[in-house]
């Protein structure tokens, strides 16, 4: 592990852990703010820039997220879109057994690429 930071906002924590070849973004708690982009977007933009600069895969792990409102998906989609236009590699991991996660994250499969640069994985 090279670097680790934890960001907390009311009910949501996002932990960013930089490894040799990847940057893990672990989501925990609930994302229920009216405008979650204000908290989430700066973190994700920073992670995207780090990953691009050092050619690392971003692994966003949502398995410990107990709930997110519909507004939370917007900053995630924006980062996936930016990554798809560039060369950044992203893997999204979610808990397939949680119905709300399956519904939200399976919809993001439109971002998957054939070269596995962008992956959406339900465990």
Short description:
This protein is an alpha/beta fold and 123 residues long. It contains three helices and six strands, in the order E-E-E-H-E-H-E-H-E.
Order of helices and strands: EEEHEHEHE
CATH topology: Transcription Regulator spoIIAA
Number of domains: 1
Under the CATH scheme, the architecture is 2-Layer Sandwich
Radius of gyration (Å)? 13 Å
Please name the fourth-level CATH homologous superfamily.
STAS domain
Description:
- The chain has 123 residues and is an alpha/beta fold.
- It has one domain (3-122): Transcription Regulator spoIIAA (2-Layer Sandwich).
- 32% of the residues lie in helices and 37% in strands.
- The chain is built from three helices and six strands.
- The protein has helices at residues 37-54, 73-85, 99-106, and strands spanning 3-9, 12-18, 22-31, 57-68, 90-94, 118-122.
- A six-stranded mixed beta sheet has the order 1-2-3-4-5-6, with helices on one face.
- It is globular.
- The model has no long low-confidence stretch (mean pLDDT 95).
């Amino acid at each position: 592990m090279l670097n680790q930071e934890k960001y907390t906002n009311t009910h949501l924590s996002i932990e960013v852990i930089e490894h040799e070849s990847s940057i893990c973004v672990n989501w925990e708690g609930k994302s229920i703010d009216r405008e979650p982009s204000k908290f989430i977007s700066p973190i994700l933009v920073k992670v995207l820039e780090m990953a691009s600069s050092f050619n690392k895969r971003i692994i966003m792990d949502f398995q410990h997220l107990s709930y997110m409102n519909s507004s939370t998906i917007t900053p995630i989609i924006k980062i996936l879109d930016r990554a798809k236009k560039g060369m950044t590699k992203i893997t999204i991991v979610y808990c397939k057994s949680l119905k709300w996660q399956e519904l939200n994250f399976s919809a993001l499969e439109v971002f998957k690429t054939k070269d596995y640069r962008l992956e959406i994985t339900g465990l």
